[in-house]
């Protein structure tokens, strides 16, 4: 279940978070996480002091990095170029993505201590990034039945209208899911990105009861979330989503 921590003003998946693994999805109340100083301030307030914070550059690709600081020189903040997902088996490495409407997904295999995070908007979802992350975890030794995942705050089909070209792309790729993820209303098509990512996780062999699913919409809930769709013409910010093994 997704719960709210009123001390930190974050949502977190109770399925995954425990003494060993800290994870969550920040809200607007934590500040704009495009700013590095807000990221550091957030981790301090949460009493988390990761040695390294690792952030995919987020270019709407399906490139996945496996973070291994023994191969590379490590800095307190590592931006991984040309990637949208990252995995690690190391402790004290915080994996981070930042969004405002796109879908953040946290992955964990507590048997093998493999954790991951990914960012997908419509492009990454169309190319099934979450399925590729599960494939990569399997390469690293995970069994799908041991993987848990959580889908964080994102824009929902109440607000995410798409044009005819994009509707056609999703219809061609996901014909079997189209009646669940594509909705017609008032002559417009709306896409349910988080539900599609949920269905893709199931398709990859993740058990239904091993997925914590965030039920709200970033665009509807102006008090708690930044939303690119709602605010891109004025000021908008980013929420931060993270997982770290303590
Ligand atoms: Zn909405």
From TrEMBL:
Keywords: Hydrolase, Metal-binding, Transferase, Zinc. PANTHER family: PURINE NUCLEOSIDE PHOSPHORYLASE LACC1, UNCHARACTERIZED PROTEIN YFIH. Pfam families: Cu-oxidase_4. InterPro entries: Cu_polyphenol_OxRdtase, Cu_polyphenol_OxRdtase_sf, Cytotoxic_necrot_fac-like_cat. It comes from the Bacteria. This is Purine nucleoside phosphorylase. NCBIfam families: peptidoglycan editing factor PgeF (TIGR00726). Belongs to the purine nucleoside phosphorylase YfiH/LACC1 family. It catalyses: inosine + phosphate = alpha-D-ribose 1-phosphate + hypoxanthine; adenosine + phosphate = alpha-D-ribose 1-phosphate + adenine; S-methyl-5'-thioadenosine + phosphate = 5-(methylsulfanyl)-alpha-D-ribose 1-phosphate + adenine; adenosine + H2O + H(+) = inosine + NH4(+). It comes from Candidatus Roizmanbacteria bacterium CG09_land_8_20_14_0_10_41_9. One of its GO terms (molecular function) is hydrolase activity.
